[in-house]
Amino acid sequence: MYILGISCYYHDASCALLKDGVIVAAAEEERFTRKKHDSSFPINAIIYCLESQGISASELDYVGFYEKPLVKFERLLSQHLAGFPWSLKVFLSSTPSWINEKLRVVGTIKKKLRYKGDVLFIEHHLAHAASTFLVSPFKEAAIVTVDGVGEWTTTSYGFGKGNEITLSKEMKFPHSIGLLYSTITAYLGFSVNNSEYKVMGLSPYGNMDRKTNQYYRKLLSIIDLKEDGSFGFDMSYFRYHYTDRMPSEKMCKLFGGPVRNKESEVTQRHKDIAAAVQLVTEDILTKIITHCHKETGQENLVMAGGVALNSVYNGKILSKTPFKRIWIQPNASDGGTSIGAAAYIYFTILGNKRKKAMEDAYLGPEFTDKEIEDALDAGEIKYHKFKSEEELVKKTAKLIYENQVVGWFQGRMEWGPRALGARSILSNACNKDMKEILNLKVKHREAFRPFAPVVCKDDAAKYFECDEPIPEPTDYMLMVYPVKKDVRKKIPAVTHVDGSGRLQTVTREQNRLYYDVIKEFGKLSGIPILINTSFNIRGEPIVCGPKEAYKCMMGTGIDCLVIGNYIVYRDENKKDIWDSEKIATD
Fold first, then answer.
1. Do 411 and 557 lie in a common domain?
2. What is the reported pTM?
3. Which residues of 124-163 are buried (b: 16+ CB within 10 A; e: fewer)?
């Protein structure tokens, strides 16, 4: 039985394909169109998923959609009426897309896919809940979902057992933790639904002391937060419920200045405000999760929704709350709901027995050595072929040890926003200058943003103060932990200003080559930890195929590309042949 899940028309459009309850393929549309956070109908991702199994849409048993458009449209009409006349401009600009596209999902699916079967609509937060619980390793668990907004819901919690999910409590729009974080993101001059993680990365540079951070106290003053985690905002400080802007003039006065121009300096005031929203978010989430434990009596916790990507807080959950185990959907934001929609249909609606937990996030396209070699030959690209897997591992580790920046392109592309060793840039975590080198020559991004360490799971506890046993979300770079004090000076390139690191752990079963390169680097350096950052440049999605990987190398300071069983050196290829017509797009 094949079930296809689809998420689109807001941000991070995606699709996922289940075969007899097992996720066999999943990808976001941005990887194919090269438009970051592409929200359009994910036709390219759908084509990939179907072709990966050699089937057509006619062989699908069901298609699931990640929300109920009519309910969401009802909410939008309600908020526009409540905000009239200030909401008129947004109403007029947004309505055509609803009439022409978003309310015609069934017709679009059937027409574009030539599909004649049933399309089932799953409520947004139910899709989030299903995306995490039904593919988790737990038979029973408490469930918490937190994001900007679905149809009406912004936060929910409940309980999962077997195939069943019950969401017993919810918070509704306009009161939203995700939209609070996005509002401060906008105030700080960063882009909404794209740069919240920058605010998270900026927060340790600010005052993280709740007693002395004045902006923390000011932000708390406009929130009515109860002991059970329920909350309400003074909406006079916000504008997102009736315009396309987020902070109001009243909030600007509260923080003592206007919205930051994105090109202007990030001052200590801005850093303290970033710290304030992180602290407030942690306060709210701790109360919600603690109360959820009290209500459910569970030891296991699963989470999804965009706020569940807050890795700084995720690393504190097991120490701050009574839960003992945690699992988080690797693609926790809206992209992951395509898995949730498909899983809910197969397991909960159809009642099929759960079989296999999600063990890794390598669900995207892959390219054979022949496909890679044919592409390189067609472009007259100079390359070298490894004689063996052992040579590939040893050469790559040696290059990294010699402070070369390596583009790493191996196996199936990752699912979700994090590079996890399939489409990664790897470099030397022991080099104190490597962060600056990567920021200036490769990533072209803000200097305050940290780089992540990757470590083999069996070594993680030697270098990081992490929970034990090490939680599975570390496999997906979803948890920040303190670097042990005696290690910090040894891995300066991945130790953040507060002494922490957003680590990724990996086992050999998950990714053999990646694991072996890390271990081999450890033999050379004495520290088996690498920098792992996404294989892209600022403003672009992570690379998908050989074309994007080569273009990224040639347009940056990446020294070489280890792609399949081949290595390509930038200084041996002086021009970007992919700009010519010699090679068709992937």
1. yes
2. 0.95
3. bbbbbbbbbbbbbebeebbbbbbbbbbbbbbbbbbbbeeb
